[in-house]
C-alpha cells in the first residue's frame, strides 16, 4: 500500500470521527436553539394578542358601547378575547403552524371552552398564582406539540359582564344565554392564553440548519484533505520517491547517479543529506577497491 493512500485512510478516519462527534453535538445544539427560537416567536405572538386585547378594551369597546346600548345589540368585536382570536386567525395565513386560543373554564363563547389538557394548564395557574408562563409539550394524534401559556386573570372590567347574569348586558344574554360565562371572581385565573405549534416546526428548522452545516463541514474537510495531499506530495512523497529511485540505481551498481538536491533543514532534508554523504563515501570506497 502506497504511503499517500495510508495517509489518506488515516486522515479520512480522523475526519470521520471528528465530523461524527461534531455532528452529534451540533444536532443537539441546533434543535435546542430552534426550539428556543420558536418559543420566542410564540412569545411575540402572545404579546401581539395581548396588545390587541388592550387596544380593544381601551379603544374599540368605548367607541362601540353607545351603539350597543342604543340599539340593544351585542357586538362581539368589543370583547378583547374575540378580537385577539380573530386577529390571530388572520395572522395564521402567514404562520399556519401556530394556533392561538383563549381557553376558558367557563366561557361565554362556546369556542373558548378549555379542553381537558387546557383545563389542566388553567388549574396550574390557579394553584400557583405566582406563575406567569408555562412552556410544555404534549402528544397529539398529529404528533408532538409545544405550547406556551399565559394566565387570564379576571379584573373589574371582566366582572362587568361575567359576575352574574342579572349584571350582564341583555344583548349578550340574548346572544349567548345565561347558563355559562358567569360567576367569575376578581383576580381568579379564569383561563389561559395558549399559543401552540407542532414540534415538527423547530425540528424542520434545526434539520435544515444541520444539513447546511454538515454539507459545509464536508466541503471543508474535502478541501483540507486535498490540500494536505498536495503538501504531502511536495514535502514527503516526492523527495522520498527520488531517494528511493537513487537507492535503487546504486543497488544496481550505478555510481554515476547525481546527488539529491537538498533544500531546507527539516527531517526529509537531513535524511537526503545523510544519504548523499553515505553515497559519496560508498562510491569512494568502491572506486578505491577497484583501483587496487
Give a structural overview:
There is one protein chain. With 292 residues, the protein is of the alpha+beta class. The protein has a domain at 45-199. The protein has helices at residues 3-71, 80-91, 116-127, 156-162, 170-176, 200-251, 267-291, and strands at residues 99-104, 134-140, 143-153, 189-198. The chain has a four-stranded antiparallel β-sheet with strand order 1-4-3-2. Strand 2 and strand 3 (143-153) form a beta hairpin. It is rod-shaped. The mean pLDDT is 84.
How many helices does DSSP assign?
A: 7
Order of secondary-structure elements: HHEHEEHHEHH
The residue-averaged pLDDT reads 84
Structural class: alpha+beta
Give the radius of gyration.
Answer: 39 Å
- Principal-axis shape: rod-shaped
Strand % is 5-15%
